[in-house]
Amino acid sequence: MTKEIRLNAFDMNCVGHLSAGLWAHPRDRAYTYKDLSYWIELAKLLERGKFDGIFLADVLGVYDVYGGNPNAALRQCAQVPVNDPVLVIPAMASVTEHLGFGVTCTLSFEPPYPFARRMSTLDHLTGGRAGWNIVTGYLDSAARGTGLDAQTAHDLRYDIADEYMEVVYKLWEGSWEDDAVVRDRENGVFAHPEKVHAVKHDGKYYRVNAIHLCEPSPQRTPVLYQAGASSRGRRFAARHAECIFLTGSKRIAASTVADIRRHAVLDGRDPAEILMFAGISVIVGRSEAEAQAKLDDYRRYINPEGALALLSGWTGIDFSKYALDDPLSYVKNDAVNSIVEALTRKANRKWTVRELVEYGGLGGPAPTIIGSPSQVADELESWIDETGVDGFNLAYIVTPESFSDFVDLVVPELQRRGIYKREYRPGTLREKLYGSGRSRLPANHPAARHRYPHDEPPC
Q: Which value, to the nearest 10 degrees, does the dihedral of the CA atoms of residues 56, 396, 47, 34 take?
């Protein structure tokens, strides 16, 4: 029997997220991303559909690999302009009770001390429904925007990230003891100073000597998401992540799931507690013919320039130097290595640039499922059974149409089959994912060693 399917909606605080050119579709409302009403209505829709969460992507920098400049990205709004994803979350939390919020924040360009405060604040304001997608960045334009000459080398970014995580764990888990805050009005004591401890960290990449500025939030450490699928990224994810997002075919997803869970065992973690989400898009109609008609309609809006601007940014390969019928070859660089590998070394076919545009123009690098509600449900079950993933990160083609179609057509079919929840669990986001009493990270997670009382000094 297929296990209960988990679902996140995949969006970004911009006009053109993954489906290049679909911003021009007459039913697409992504251009209203600047209005809180868009995010509020989307949050209500997703909670009606019992989604576990909304996952907000982000990128710091602009896609300027294609042609060596940002012109194509700007013409086709390829993830630019892009607003801060964190700021819309409290508004969505205020109109929902259960929906979780995973937000992408790049650790490479912000010190851990102020970042830890922002995430604790978000966890407070959402009532313990905050999650953080840990990314190290992949665009040289982001590095240049923050005063560097170029992006740090791929594997070194993860070495730095490991230390970054140690620092934020110390701040979130070890600075304030559980009973530090007493709010004793009668005696005029809000918090016991002796129960609030300075974090002292003197490492290779970071130095901190300060208390965490926030009192403990409901989860302390937000739910940890990660999407690195390179060899180094998998090791990092297996050590830190609770939820991992994957892209690629079933074959690639199954291999990645097995490898990450093997690394988790080596790190002393329970591999079953690392939830795997496969990236997908869904085009569903009341019948197969209706779904196919939608696909044909959507395809008319795919913009090759926008698609190649995105693909060039993700892969670090300037596709303006390729003819449309040229095959794609593996190129090692400091961009998203896992996408390049998935399309070359790990692919069971040769991709031409033209085929990449046709494939990635709708929903980006993730597969697209097309059909009636029962056909879509069959394929989702197949993914669960054949790959070991726990659920899906659902990207839109047209927003909010793709999400409302899924909620209205696919969710009832999944519920009828008994493989999708009819009600939410109570509690924080971590409790909704793992069960009552699980607001905190488990004892076998590396964050736990920084809690009080310590077996060793915090520094």
A: 60
